[in-house]
Amino acid sequence: MELAFHPLRCQVDDDQVAIEFELELFNAGTAPARAIFAEASLLNASATQDAELAAFFENAHGNGEPVDVIPPMKRMSFRSRVVAPRAAVHEYELAGRKTFVPVIAFNALYEWSGGKAQSSAAYLVGRDTQQDKLGPLRLDQGAREFSELGARPLPSGVRT
User: Fold this and answer.
1) Fewer CB near the last or first residue (10 Å), C or N of the chain?
2) pLDDT band at 20, cuts 50/70/90?
3) What pLDDT does residue 53 have?
4) How would you class 108 by CB atoms within 10 Å of its CB: exposed for 0-12, middle for 13-18, buried for 19 or more?
5) Domain ranges of the chain
6) How confident is the model at residue 50, as a pLDDT?
7) Which of 66-86 are b and which e, b meaning 16 or more Cβ less than 10 Å from the residue's Cβ?
8) Considering the domain 2-159, what is its CATH architecture?
9) What pLDDT is attached to residue 90?
10) Is 96 helix (H, G, I), strand (E, B) or coil?
11) What ranges in 9-157 are assigned the alpha helix state H?
12) Cα 14 from chain centroid (whole Å)
């Protein structure tokens, strides 16, 4: 199972941060993928992000209602959102401005003819600058919505 992520918008207010996104699941295998669960977590870019990502990948739950089947070489996409309390957001000061850099991680759990499997991926999210680097999101301007977002895949992930 391959995952593709596209952030749509980020809403910041005094209480929470929410990122709406589209996630695409692609069954790149030769057998149907069944009982597919996808879960997401909103984290922060920080010195502890690798440990936080590893813990999320290792403790995949597969809660919720599964997708019944994705046939071989077929895609399925859906929209969803992740929310974190504002108190959980790590702020960074950059040029005198309060900013943050979100990280979104995904676990896709599924069954196939060979047993159970997991595909996981993580992405850095920020303002799309049309360059290699993403721009941080500002927190010092009150309630705000960011819609010009980009994502970059992080090297961490799981594929079993």
Assistant:
1) C
2) very high
3) 94
4) buried
5) 2-159
6) 92
7) ebeebeeeeebeeeeebebee
8) Sandwich (2.60)
9) 86
10) coil
11) 49-58
12) 22
